[in-house]
Amino acid sequence: xxxxxxxxxxxxxxxxxxxxxxxxxxxxxxxxxxxxxxxxxxxxxxxxxxxxxxxxxxxxxxxxxxxxxxxxxxxxxxxxxxxxxxxxxxxxxxxxxxxxxxxxxxxxxxxxxxxxxxxxxxxxxxxxxxxxxxxxxx
Amino acid sequence: xxxxxxxxxxxxxxxxxxxxxxxxxxxxxxxxxxxxxxxxxxxxxxxxxxxxxxxxxxxxxxxxxxxxxxxxxxxxxxxxxxxxxxxxxxxxxxxxxxxxxxxxxxxxxxxxxxxxxxxxxxxxxxxxxxxxxxxxxxxxxxxxxxxxxxxxx
Lengths: 138, 153
Description:
The complex is a heterodimer.
Chain A: H1 4-25, H2 31-37, H3 46-67, H4 79-95, H5 100-109, H6 113-132
Helix pairs in contact in A: 2-3, 5-6
Chain B: H1 3-24, H2 29-36, H3 47-65, H4 86-102, H5 106-111, H6 118-138
């Protein structure tokens, strides 16, 4: 039971963040899209998108200060496997126009048919991957 | 446009996002993989992260529909496409494979950069390379004669 309350509270904060970015700046809080936008410094929104990334990176240290410990992070995959996974996540989120935040948090909230299709697809493919990769990743 | 206000708003939103991820457990790839592992000892707790986030985010979206423009920008930039096409589904499949192998999606991976851990740096570096590869492959063809778009000399 202890894991559910922080999960829900963390989710509420993520939803608040998406709401802030939408109502104040008119932007969708899609992390993959914002990261990719950093490759286009001529975009007028570049500085604000970079500021979002800086804030995102400062989030875990801010949590550590308030909670007295860092958030748990257990990364079991080997470095070569992480490199392959990173390539797939980077390429796939650009090809598919979004990730867990853009399609999940923001797209589902808008009931966007594209986002609903994307979320169902990446949930299915990730679940299947976890089951099939049991021999490779503990 | 109010650039400084936009930058501060984005910084605050990013910090809230990163703090929320830290509190939620999404920063722990082993737990994310436990959530995705529906055939094993399934840990459903992370579904509450998405439920909480989507609920609040949909309220924010409902408010935005009643506004003419956001506070610090001239207009809302919201995707309008509705077509479910091959790139959308193919991209989601590839992303899901990478997410399942690592337990990292882009938000938590970027937030975890603050730990300075080598595996995180490797993952984020590869993610940026994957994004760059997509950009190179989808760049408008450079085969046409150079200078085709430039004004006549």
